[in-house]
Write the structure tokens for this entry.
Amino acid sequence: MGFDIQIRVSTLKRAGSHAIINWISSLYDINRVLFVNDMILGRNPLHKSKYNNIPNLNGKYRSGNEDIIIFGREDAMLDDVRDSISEPTRIKWFGEGEAFDVIIIRDSLNCFAGKWALETNKMPNYHPSIINKFERPYIVNMWKQYAYEFLSDTHILPYKKIGINYNMWCVNPVYRQCIAGMFPQSNFDNEITNQVSGLGWGSSFDDNKELKQMLKNNDSRKRFSTRYKNFGNIPEFESFKNDKELMELSKTIFGIEY
């Protein structure tokens, strides 16, 4: 059995990926969709034992009749994402359906703030670490690589590309409708954005109950764009602002001047 629509998602952790993946799945009948979380690069995701653990799919087990697959990997350099599946391998695993590369990007300092809070509050030994000064440059360079790919200054990913600006997606229903139209056979659903995924340890800042309340109000959603201010008293975090390239990319994509 092959998948007519194959959606690979590439993103950094703390970029809102699970909320967006949940929303993408809602564009289709749930019986058509198989989701594989946290794919191991180079390994067939169909060999995983657990599937569909996002709210919209409601714990549905794989039936074998799905014709849409959503899969991806967080915190991986795009070269590794590209090289993990050759074209013959893709066809062998998933069939000759239409393949898409979805790249999700959140503005740099709010993405980094989520990572910093995750390590501080929930996952102190997480790697790659934004707090560890030796690993921090790797994350910064990874974000820049995603930014250039989002802007189409580079063309690392081989499939039909759909770039999603998390900041816009989070607050702008017209933008969401525009993005939905890029997926074939999709049916736009705006309400699903109020759901909270338990994957990825939830929010770095709020418990899931509080987060659900925030998602019901567009003004509350705007708080997601000021998370970085929580770390203004940490010199190492503030030093991100000294990276001219990082700041210029954030301004170009998001219109943000921190």
